[in-house]
Amino acid sequence: MSAEPIRVLVTGAAGQIAYSLLYSIAKGDVFGKDQPIILILLDIPPMLPVLDGVVMELQDCALPILKEVIPTDKVEVAFKDIDAAILVGSMPRKEGMERKDLLKANVAIFKTQGAALDKYAKKTVKVVVVGNPANTNCLIASKSAPSIPKENFSCLTRLDHNRACSQVAMRCGVSSDQVKNVIIWGNHSSTQYPDVHHAKVNLQGAETEAYQAIKDDAWLRGDFISTVQQRGAAVIKARKLSSAMSAAKAICDHMRDIWFGTKEGEFVSMGVYASGNSYNIPEDLIYSFPVQIKNKTWKVVDGLPINDFSRAKMDATAAELVEERDTALDFLSQ
């Protein structure tokens, strides 16, 4: 293995998503089996003892490509010369907490992390924001890191994408790799719009439009959408904990696609800068679009026909994002 190690930062590294995520990264599922990795784990000071336990376990996995693990609570250590940042850590919503208070707490966190990216990271760094509200946190981080290209920032809607994909596959009685080109539009919140108007299902070797394959428009326009929108809440209700295994898997999918590109003729969903999009989505937002990725560069899939049903849902989630952005930017300027 002669390749230079890459430096990969995971924040919220003592948390449960990270616990599912770190092993996958360290064994080569994301950046490749032959790519040596230096893992940097950032969390808040009270979590440092837990972080030491995570470091011990990573050592005990005896993974050949994992060259070093650096636990820290200091941004100047965490963000130094990194190639990739997976920002999982955020302020979780506590019971009875107003969304506004949640935004305010997270603006402070992502302003700090954006500034650290700006000051310490490589300018080529790829940043994925997972901590909620992910779209707006991503926007704040990017605005706080003016020297890093806006295109290098994305937020995770791949979990929603995978949920939608799996719902369609189960409904059709096929495995999920037989479904492609579902789309999540908009915010990673319950206003997101899971869209299968452009999705294809492979039925016995024949590529079929999802609407033809499922033959149940009422389900596709009703329960399918609400199931995907509400899935996170359903998991919390059942497990008393938020999605971790599935979130970690989605992060791996998202980052691997950035690193190695999407398959020919396929697109995936991720939250990216809306500037210059052809779908009349307001410009200064991080909004989930269908994208294709090549040479570590994403491009929004343009020119998909949008019907009135879709248009209304795409606009509704955009409106929520505009409101979130404006509130967040007020806090940012304070």
Automatic annotation (TrEMBL):
The active site is at H188. Its EC number is 1.1.1.37. HAMAP family: Malate_dehydrog_2. This is Malate dehydrogenase. It catalyses: (S)-malate + NAD(+) = oxaloacetate + NADH + H(+); (S)-2-hydroxyglutarate + NAD(+) = 2-oxoglutarate + NADH + H(+). GO terms for molecular function: L-malate dehydrogenase (NAD+) activity. Belongs to the LDH/MDH superfamily. MDH type 2 family. It comes from Astatotilapia calliptera (Eastern happy). Residues 7-153 form the Lactate/malate dehydrogenase N-terminal domain. The lineage of its organism: Eukaryota, Metazoa, Chordata, Craniata, Vertebrata. Residues 157-331 form the Lactate/malate dehydrogenase C-terminal domain. GO terms for biological process: malate metabolic process; tricarboxylic acid cycle. Keywords: NAD, Oxidoreductase, Tricarboxylic acid cycle. NCBIfam families: MalateDH-SF1, MDH_euk_cyt, PRK05442.1. Pfam families: Ldh_1_C, Ldh_1_N. Substrate binds at R93, R99, N132, R163. The gene is MDH1. PANTHER family: MALATE DEHYDROGENASE.
